[in-house]
Amino acid sequence: MSKQDSSNRFTITYKTVQNVPIQFDVYPPSFSAGAPTKALPSVVHFHGGGFVVGTRRDFFPAWLQKRINTAGIVFISADYRLMPTGGVTGHEILEDIQDVFAFLRSSKYTIAVDALAAEGQLPCPKFDLDHSKIAVTGGSGGGMLAYFAAAHVRPRPVAVLSLFGMGDLVRPHYLFPKDKPFMSGRPLVDPSKLKEFLHPISSSQIIVESPLAFHPPTATTPAIPANPRMLVSLAYLQLGVYLDYYTGEFEPSLSLTLRAAAEKGATHEELYELIPGRHRPLFPVFHIDENFPPTFFMHGTADTAVPLSESEHLYQLLKKAGGKAGESTIRKPEGQDHFFDIFVPGIEDKFGDTFDEAVEFLKKYLDE
């Protein structure tokens, strides 16, 4: 597992909620010839973690950051509020994603960079961002957040890279309880040990960073998590209640409503029709048309955390929509599970060409 190149990284706070700063890291390309004379394109990344765990430096696709920087493009990795404490649902996370782009495209970004430079804290020459040349990417839950940006940010990102992204949450995987191990052979969790993350939630604390931690510290996945939040999304999937926490719709339970309809034979499309209008901004299928940015999907065929069918369904909708959306591409690395690009040793030797293709896809639209 390669590490991100942090030699020139700098950090900016893009908003504060209840006195909690929410930040992004900026990874600039190298400036061997001095400060750039023109504004630079950028790629904004959102980390995975099922919306409940992780930080802007966790689940980090170093292969992507390095390739993006080598191409002369700025790589930005952003935090966002995490469910479920503090009343955070997908709606609050959507606000954060919109605010990242609003900040980057405003004078606030320039002011923040100038302040770092004045303090001697800027590790590289100053540069401007090209507001018209921003792409977006994310892995797993972060893939959904990339879709948020594609659907709701204006101007839209020019392209999307979805790495095994969540995006089709009315599938049985999210709606039905499970009584056998279902994710990478991990044992079922004991929900009674996660009561602080189960409805009704008493904590009003806003959490933005929840780093991955394992027992022992030197272990690699799928080692036993030391951070209880690492088990929360597993618990929601196991209980079949993900949509309740994602939307905040507990009474009546949106998960139970859709599950009952599915048990009566409702089709995939009919399940979507049961989603109240106020929650539809959180579901990409309602926002796909010919203007949706071209999307490169990379999703392993053996993914046990986010079914491949989620990316396949969105890909088919985009191709059907035509226009820029119809220029989307999908690649399905054979036999690969969730976050294969980060945790599988020697993965560059197997899929380096696919990684290159994904970056070339982004570059194509950033160069237009």
From TrEMBL:
<keyword id="KW-0378">Hydrolase</keyword>
<protein>
    <recommendedName>
        <fullName>Alpha/beta hydrolase fold-3 domain-containing protein</fullName>
    </recommendedName>
</protein>
<feature type="domain" description="Alpha/beta hydrolase fold-3">
    <location>
        <begin position="43"/>
        <end position="169"/>
    </location>
</feature>
<dbReference type="GO" id="GO:0016787">
    <property type="term" value="F:hydrolase activity"/>
</dbReference>
<dbReference type="InterPro" id="IPR029058">
    <property type="entry name" value="AB_hydrolase_fold"/>
</dbReference>
<dbReference type="Pfam" id="PF07859">
    <property type="entry name" value="Abhydrolase_3"/>
</dbReference>
<dbReference type="InterPro" id="IPR050300">
    <property type="entry name" value="GDXG_lipolytic_enzyme"/>
</dbReference>
<dbReference type="InterPro" id="IPR013094">
    <property type="entry name" value="AB_hydrolase_3"/>
</dbReference>
